[in-house]
Amino acid sequence: MVIKAVKGVKDILPKDIGKWRRVEDSAREVFGRYDYREIVLPIFEKSEVFVKSVGETTDIVQKEMYSFLDKGGDALTLRPEGTASCVRAYIEHSMYHPKGTVTPLFYIGPMFRRERPQAGRFRQFHQIGAELFGTDDPAADAEVMHLLMTFLKTVGARKPKLLLNSLGDDKCRPAFRQSLVDFLANRKESLCPLCKERYETNPLRVLDCKSETCAETVRSAPTIDSFWCDDCADHFQKVRKALYGLNIEYEINHRMVRGLDYYSRTVFEVTASGLGAKDAVAAGGRYDALVKKSGGPDVPAIGWAVGMERLIESIGDSAGEKTNDTAPDICIVHLGERAHGEAFRVAGLLREQGRKVLCPYRQTSMKKQMGRADKSGAKLAVIIGEEEFNKKTMLVKNLSTSTQKEHPIGDIRKIAAEPPA
Ligand SMILES: [Zn+2]
Ligand SMILES: [Zn+2]
Known about the structure:
By secondary structure, this protein is of the alpha+beta class. The protein contains 15 helices and 16 strands. The two termini are 55 Å apart. One zinc ion (ZN) binds next to helix 7.
């Protein structure tokens, strides 16, 4: 029996890596424009890092985490998302010092959730995420959304559309939650099985359930905006004004909540065409209480994450395929047993000098090798046969003009530094 990859995980093959590289390179470049610094976080953490912050009643924690006891008996979890780890690191390394410091961070890497296998969902998936610690300025909310939209446009996501809401805060959300529970109390029977559970544990999530009957049921449900306290309403208006100033189009959706417990005030999602209409390519929000709740100082924060698989699906096949497939600079053509060894010695020297070199392992006919060199797009061929080997020379052929010249083999460094025209 051949062993295959685990269900729900996949290999990213060399033929696809160009797109992945391009997305990651663009992310690093765009983050740089906003002065975000990269942080590389561990792939597993103590389970409590996620249970506490993501929320015990969320789908992620209840059903989807890869948690295990290691050989020492420690309860560990493969990270299902990046924010909780980022907050843990932010506190552990006292990145809030000195007081008032604003800390913009980003990360790129795999996440793990045991989701039901379905199209476009993977149990190991990849995210690019941004986290901005240290400010509750509404301008920061607009700026992180601007950063996200700029990144999505730079990589060529098709028609990204921003959806915006505010979930209120600890002051005003409890009243909304109660009003929603009251509303759902005598409509429980029309909810899907999952939402019947959510009604007890996490009623806000009923609002963005993807089942048709739940969507119908909550159509006349109360919405958060009529419960906002003055501060939350004011914050939302200022965020909208700042978005307007940045020329960012968005749609307000007061039924949008997020699948994680830690969000407060601003939440947002981005959908893109080429994906199912209900699937977001990116999502994020403000989490002003999380750092304190996790044992740190009272520092507000906001962030988002992009799902790389979905983003790459949305970009389609048009872009970036060939990133890793550039033509070689030099092809080596060799004939004869002794020339074989010499060819690889020369290839090694050229590569040390920064040249991209193709050198075949198997010697076919001179004609076949030259045909391959012509097709490769290389500028030069270096030809070493028995005769050249004996004379300690090589033929250097310009593949576009077809002119060739014999050089002493000792010239190889010179040719590497300055290939003849
Ligand atoms: Zn439902
Ligand atoms: Zn409020």
